[in-house]
Write a structure and sequence with these properties.
Length: 466
């Protein structure tokens, strides 16, 4: 699938306006300007933007998956037929068709100016036919609404008056605008908390917000909070809409993924909740700083991380001994700080040869400079340049891949099936997360998977009918 996209203006996403110049063709893969040595790369965007290719590695969550995290809610997409195809397939594949409906926008709705009537009557018709009464409805508008003189306030005010027992929130399916401001992914992570109403604070509560997957149970982040008498709550813990509403009681929101920044800022504006950014990092010093900040907030002494560092080092060294000099490829979908992770692997003796990413977060610049200076021959490979459709997805020797896109582009069945930092147990955060990833690397090296089958499943971690 190829599509032309506009230039990104947001400074909060991984790709910015900087463009690499003078990149030479990579003779190893013959992929032209879609593969360059890191020594020739520019930070934070090593490749030019333009026509894009979408690989069949589908494990990253989309707006349908994320919206389903709100308990007792129903999604209604108001889109043209072609656009609806993808979202309805997502709902079917994740076995959630009972919580999904669609209103098809046709040509006459655009030409006659009856978009408001279509939406109000359409939503009313959907709600009247549902076998249950949702507590909340997520209405997804599309690109066409931005091109028309569409009165969104009137639509939502009318629906709220007609259905006072239901909360409505506007959500957005606007791929044509995804590089003109905050992306649909970022917006969805905002809107998934927009329905929460103010409540008195309970000082012993802390939220972790903005993650598609729950932080896994062994992470030190829980023990630090518990030592200070705090309980961590995530949307994944909420089985009812009332429990979801109680997230307003936490005076602090933690976010560990950069895409949740807008959500944290919006909750501070609406509910007065403070926020703290504790990024999912792999450099030990930065991880310790995260824990120091959390411990300070909880009023406890920062943990002694020497034993934790030792445990992580031992797990990585054991994996490195087994894997040896086997070439390793990593990709941006594996974790939000792929350069931090790559540096950790190299410092423990792993032979990282390829990094699949089209841009990097600003906070990764130090790791980028370190890799460029110490390992200038590492290859950076685009995931979306049009040439990747015809790239040679075969390697002459065994490769270990970390991430679905790296597995797809190298054609290997030996890969760690982690997406957005999360595997079967949840989001691998902290030293215990590093230990678990090292264990998964050993398992992946010894036991091949069916790469073609696994990477096509949408939304890694969701129930899947595929």
């Amino acid at each position: 699938m190829l599509r032309r996209l506009s230039h990104r203006k947001s400074d909060q996403e991984t790709v910015c306006g900087c463009m690499a110049g003078g990149a030479e063709q990579c003779t190893e893969t013959g992929d032209g300007d879609s593969v360059i040595a890191i020594s020739e790369a520019h930070f934070p965007a090593p490749f030019k933007e333009g026509l894009e290719y979408s690989s069949p590695a589908r494990g990253i969550w989309n707006i349908v998956h994320t919206g389903m995290l709100i308990p007792e809610s129903h999604q209604i997409f108001v889109c043209a037929e072609g656009c609806l195809r993808g979202v309805v397939l997502t709902a079917v594949e994740m076995n959630r068709m009972g919580r999904y409906s669609a209103i098809e926008v046709r040509e006459q709705n655009v030409l006659t100016g009856g978009m408001e009537e279509l939406m109000i009557d359409g939503v009313a018709d959907v709600l009247g036919k549902l076998p249950y009464r949702p507590r909340a409805v997520l209405i997804f508008i599309n690109c066409q609404h931005f091109f028309l003189a569409y009165d969104q306030d009137f639509v939502f005010d009318s629906l709220k008056k007609r259905f006072p027992d239901i909360d409505f929130v506007d959500c957005y399916m606007i791929p044509t605008l995804r590089k003109s401001g905050i992306t649909p992914d970022q917006k969805m992570r905002m809107q998934m908390y927009e329905l929460i109403r103010p409540q008195p604070f309970c000082e012993n509560l802390i939220n972790i917000i903005g993650t598609n997957r729950k932080v896994f149970a062994d992470s030190e982040i829980y023990s630090i909070a518990e030592s200070g008498g705090r309980q961590i709550v995530q949307i994944h813990d909420c089985s009812t809409y009332d429990e979801y509403q109680n997230m307003a009681c936490a005076p602090l929101n933690i976010f560990v993924e950069p895409l949740a920044k807008n959500s944290a800022e919006r909750l501070k504006e609406r509910l007065g909740q403070q926020y703290m950014y504790l990024p999912t990092v792999f450099g030990y010093d930065r991880l310790d700083e995260n824990y120091r900040k959390l411990a300070e907030y909880c009023g406890v002494k920062a943990p002694d991380t020497a034993p934790l560092r030792g445990e992580a080092d031992a797990a990585l060294d054991e994996a490195a001994e087994l894997i040896g000099d086997t070439p390793i490829a990593v990709d941006y979908s594996f974790t939000f700080e792929i350069l931090s992770f790559t540096r950790l692997l190299i410092e423990h003796g792993f032979n990282v040869r390829e990094i699949y990413a089209d841009g990097f977060a600003a906070e990764e610049e130090e790791d980028f400079r370190w890799l460029k200076e110490n390992h200038p021959d590492i290859l950076l490979s685009s995931c979306v340049r049009p040439q990747k459709r015809f790239a040679d997805r075969h390697r002459d020797r065994k490769y270990l891949a970390l991430g679905q896109k790296a597995a797809y582009f190298t054609g290997t069945d030996y890969f760690v099936n982690v997406v957005e930092g999360a595997g079967d147990e949840g989001l691998y955060y902290g030293y215990k997360g590093i230990v678990r990833i090292a264990e998964l690397m050993r398992e992946a090296f010894e036991t091949p998977k069916d790469m073609k089958k696994l990477v096509q499943r949408k939304g890694r971690g969701c129930e899947s009918l595929v």
